[in-house]
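User: I'm designing a mutation panel for Serine/threonine-protein phosphatase and want to avoid disrupting the core. Could you give me a predicted structure to guide residue selection? Please restate the sequence first so the numbering is unambiguous.

Assistant: Good idea. Sequence first, for numbering, then the predicted structure tokens:
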Amino acid sequence: MIQSFKPKTKLNMKYVLNPLAIYELGQRSNQEDSIFPVSGEVTAEDRLFIVCDGMGGHESGEVASQTVCQTMSEYILSQTSPEGAFTDEQFNEALNAAYDSLDQKDNGAAKKMGTTMTLLKFHSGGCLLAHIGDSRIYHIRPSERYIFHTRDHSLINDLYDIGEITLEEMKTSKQKNVITRAIQPNLERRPKADIKHITDIRPGDYFFMCSDGMLEETDDSDLLNILSDPDTTDDEKIQILTKVSENNRDNHSAFLIHILDLIPDNYAKEEKGKEESPIESVPDNRVMTAGTRTIERKEKKSAETKEDKRQKRRLPIVKILAFAILLFIVIYAASFILLKAIKGEKEHSKTNHQIENTILQE
């Protein structure tokens, strides 16, 4: 069992990511998958990722997936901050906006167009995962051989849950492409998304989100083995995933998102406020180096704080010693003056006595 990571203090986090995309046609004549960000435009600054797999034949599936992907991404980017909180309510507002947009594009065909949807949004408190249909989101921790994925909304999953088919039968079933939830226009009851929140995110973790076409020849163990190989870079891992899926029949799209580092949000804000010097300026493709340097700076700051505390503990002792020395000097000086005064008084009395004797003799 994996122990949840519980930091000593609850901090909002900023994530250092390395996201990569796969966007392949397969053996189909047209591309009905849609992804956000668009393939070729994915950057380390992105915090929102969407994969939609359209259906309906001809251009209907393409229209559905593009509409949902575009509407949800535009709504979320315009209504939320990139690193701020992201709630279920905000997600559902974006989903309803997508349903509304799709309603307006309904072509009235007998076979309704529709699309699956998977969404991953990183925010200050972790990440939100949401899905409708059989496109998946994986959370993989290679260091612990841990893999989680969302549950497909499919007929074969329902049959498996009630014991009608086995895992092996699921792989070859003729009904494996039948889904039980999809985003479609003008429905009396709009299907809701399954939402999951993940707060236990660590450097080295991967998130992998994909349409079902990506998994024709790849299962969970294959995926875990590919991502757990310490001798391959992220670019090489993407090349391997692309290679093993090159003969897949269906369109297949995916995002592979590597968590390189986590930075406490309050520290990141402090760093942003500092004046940048040529030595500390780090280009975007070297963000991980900046993250490493952040840790070193925190350790140095911590060491200085401990030294300050030791100095503060020594300060009262120094004050007491100084006061004792001063008190000794004052007492010594007072004693000296008092003794001198007594001695002077005795000499004065002796002088007066001599004078009185002299007067009497005369």
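For picking mutation sites, this is relevant: Residues 1-10, 274-307, 358-362 have pLDDT under 50 and may be disordered. Residues 13-274 form a domain with the Phosphatase 2c; domain 1 fold (CATH 3.60.40.10).
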